[in-house]
Amino acid sequence: MHNFTHGDKRVVFTVLSGEVVGSEKLSETRVTTTGGVPVNGKDGDLTPVRVSSVSIINHEFWVKTADGVEHDVKLRGVDIPLRTGQDISLISALKKDGSPLHTILLNHTASKRWVLRDAGVLNTELELTPFNWKTVLIVSGLCVAGVATAGLGLLAAGGYLCFALYQGSQRKKLLISDLNAYLEKLDTLVASRGRAPSPVQAESPVEAELSFELDSPAPTQSAAEPESPTLNSDSVRRALSRNL
């Protein structure tokens, strides 16, 4: 797990890395109808009827991690091309109840990247900068005091409200900026791990010597020289007697 901390805010991110072992997409169609309302109360005159449809893609795929466990992932409203055998990493932020908010999907095999939720969307869904009700109470108190102070309290309430809104917007911008920077670093870290080559196993000296002996050709033996015939004294006498 990876932790993002900004002041008193803390967000936990998880990374699911593995091989895609199954992928399925289903299309959900929503049809809405508008119009058909009587005009000026007359049943004969109706507004034009308009029919609109919206198709939503529900993507479900399975990721098998290095420990052999298969994890089910469901995406809604996004169309991401995935096929069986590809290596991917999915970065997700955890809500307070532990449910994931899928943020970035990296396809290491295809060298592609999809941002499912940026820092602004995460800020809204995780409620990192909620509405400050304390400001409302202070402004309300100043307004009530303004009645007794001939409007001075109302001016103070207006000034404090503008100051509080400005401070809140600045805090929100700073948090989103820091969260974006953290997501980029986490994205780079996960991408570098996905592209890391597998270590090369070095041969031991014994294995290297054996392979050399097996691959080297065997020495060739030179052909034996033919033996010269041996001459003795008896054979010489017989040869001379024939000539005579």
UniProtKB/TrEMBL annotation:
Polar residues composition bias: residue spans: 218-234
Organism superkingdom: Bacteria
Keywords, ordered alphabetically: Membrane, Transmembrane, Transmembrane helix
Transmembrane annotation, as ranges: 136-166
Region annotation (Disordered) ranges: 214-244
Name used for this protein in its record: Uncharacterized protein
Lineage, broadest ranks: Bacteria, Pseudomonadati, Pseudomonadota, Gammaproteobacteria, Pseudomonadales
